[in-house]
Each structure stands twice: as C-alpha cells, then as structure tokens.
Amino acid sequence: MGEHGGMDEPNMVEIKLSDTEAAQWEELPELSMQKSVQCSIEKKKSLRARYYYGIVFLITNLIAWLFRDYGEKALPLLHYTKACGKEEGDCFHTMGVLRVSLGCFIFFFVMFLTTFNTRKFYETRNAWHSGWWGLKFLILMISLVIPFFIPSYYIQIYGELARVGAGVFLILQLISVIEFITWWNNYWMPDDRNKSSCSLGLFMSTLFYIVSVCGLVVMYMLYASKPSCALNIFFITWTVILLVVMMVISLHSKVNRGLLSSGIMASYIVFLCWTAIRSEPASENCSPQKQENAHGGVTTVIGFLIAIFAIVIATFSTGIDSQSFQFRKGEVQLEDDIPYKYGFFHVVFSLGAMYFAMLFISWNLESSTRKWSIDVGWASTWVKIVNEWFAATIYLWKLISPVVRQDKIMNHEVSMEEVNKSEAA
C-alpha cells in the first residue's frame, strides 16, 4: 500500500529489441507454420509408401506362385543355368518358390537395415523409406535375380530357416490380432456403468457366441460325421473345450472381463479350426477338398486369390501395428515423429515373405504342390491347429496374468509384514 492507501503501481520494464531481433521474433510463427506444413507433407508420403511396399510384396508373391505353377513351361531356359542343373527343374515348383521368396526377403531386409531406428521426419532415412523408388526398384530386381544363381543346397537351407521365420510371423500376427480384440472390446464397452454400452456389449458377445456355436455344428456335420473321422472329431471337440475354458475364466470373479472379448476370440478360434480342417489333403475321406477339383475350378481359383489378398492385408496390418510390440506404451507422439516404425514394418514383410513361401509349398520342402492350391497338406493342417492352440494360450494368459501379478504383489507384502513383525518381536 502507498502513503495514500492506494495500490503500488507495478514496475514496467521496457525491453528494446534491435531490428534484426524483432524480425526474427516476427518470423517465429511463420517458421513454426512451415515446419508443421512440412511435417504434414512428410507424413502423407510415409503413409502412402506403406501401400507401395504392400503392392511390391503382393507382386513378388504372385511371381513366386507363377514360378511354381507355370514357370517350367514359360521359362525353360532356366533349366540350363548352373545353379538349377541340366536335367532337373530345381528352379521351379518348390525351389522356384523359395528362390523368389529369398529375393523378396533380401529386399525387405535391406530396407530394414537402412531404415532401422528412424524416429524423425527430417532424418535422411525417412526420405529413403518414402522415396527413391527408382533405386529401390533396381535393388528389388537384383534381389530377385541373385537367388537363381545360388546352388540348390543353399536354397534348401533357406527353406529350413523360412519355416522358423514363418513361425515367428504367425506369433506376431497372433499378438496383433489379440491386441486388436482388446481394443475392440474397449471400444464397444467404454464404460461399465453405462447401461447402453453394457447392452451393446451383451448383444455383440451373444452374437459372436452364436456364430461360434453354429460354426462348430457345421464342422461336426461336414467334417466329423463319421466315426472314422477321429482326428477331425478331436480337433473340433478340443476347440469346444477351449471355448468353454475361455468363457469360464472371463466370467471368474477375479478376472471379471465379461463375455465380449472372449466371444470375439471364440469366433477367431473356430475360424482357425475350420481353416486347419480345410487344409487336409484331398485324398482323405474326411477332407472337404474334392479330388475332381485337383486342376482348379472357378471356386478354387477365386478361393486361392482371396486367400492371397487376405494374407497380404494381414501382413500389412501387422507391419503397421508396432505399438502392440512396444515395451513402453502411451508415449507422446510429437509432430515430427514418424507415424509407424519403419524397421518393424520391413521386418514383418521379410518374415511375411517366408510365410508366403511356406503356404505355397504347404510347409513341405520335399514335394511339389498341385496347381491353384495354397496351404494344403498335413503339415499345413498341423501348423494351423498349433496356431489355434497357441492363440488360445496367449489369450488365456492375457486374462490371468494381471491376477497372477496382483497375487504375487500381495504375497510379497504379506511376507514383508511378517518379517517386520518378527524383527519387532
């Protein structure tokens, strides 16, 4: 307070800027706007590049299929290259698929090495990932040609490694699917106290369980109607047991996760069981395949093309889903951060090339596959069945892991209290 009871006037400090500093101060908003516009342009390029890589992946796998089914007639001169041998068509059928797959793997692995740990738009590796398509096309052509000059023995070794890589790809895909189911569950039931959201969740979970039960009944009728179809009966019955276990654990008082996520997962498990049974050889009595379609009818061709596009889409979605595999989640996304992890994206496509190769040769390195078929044979059947069981195991662990961790924390606190009491006594 001053002498007359008024408020003291605040001291005003006048800061004088030079002409240069004043100009720079006025340019700051413009620089910020330019940076924002540049980041927006780079982000669009990066997002667009994903589809270009997806197209490259699709085309290379179609080339692998063409080599398997029609390469021996279309390119007979490859018989006389040193790596293929003069009297046997090692460059075609199984070996042809593996050679093209190796070329695709090399291309995407080179992209992984050159884009790994890219974080910001202003980095040179971001420009390389999103541009330079002429040079990358040249690298792709070189990558596809080199495997045809590699001896068959080393291609066989790559085939063995491709089995492992394809298995890793399936695990990554399963984790991505389960994370998506979790997100879907949270999206449909955002608030447990909201009656409308609970009603929607109950309706959708009921719908998914009805679809699952209908699918099981249809599989019993079509693929397990005879007592001699013991293996199919076992596959379907075990799927029923897995569904019941998932439902019971989801409703357990300690877990209390509801039926929505388990209902979605149940439909996915039934779908995996159906694809496994569909992969059984056509010679089997309980197989849904028909021997008269061995040369491929219209339905076979359409199913083949749908399967290829579905696998490409699954590979694409797994590649851009790097957040499901981060140890530290919830990180703040800055304006100049890349929209997805380039290294992880290219690794998934590298493993996807191995997975596609296994589908085209039905996971069997010793025999050829009939035309217009994909992933048919006992090896394919068992891979899909194990994939189904593994998916159920991962989901069940995701349900019970919070309870297990909580029990460990409580047991640790109780033991610490007992130690403190004993020391005090």
UniProtKB/TrEMBL annotation:
Membrane topology: Multi-pass membrane protein
GO cellular component terms, semicolon-separated: membrane
Transmembrane parts of this sequence: 51-68, 96-116, 137-155, 161-181, 202-224, 230-251, 258-277, 297-320, 340-361, 381-400
UniProt cross-references to Pfam families, sorted A to Z: Serinc
InterPro entries: TDE1/TMS
Highest taxon in the source lineage: Eukaryota
Keywords linked to the UniProt accession: Membrane, Transmembrane, Transmembrane helix
Localization (cell): Membrane
Protein family (similarity comment): Belongs to the TDE1 family.
Protein name, UniProt field: Probable serine incorporator
Lineage, uppermost ranks: Eukaryota, Viridiplantae, Streptophyta, Embryophyta, Tracheophyta
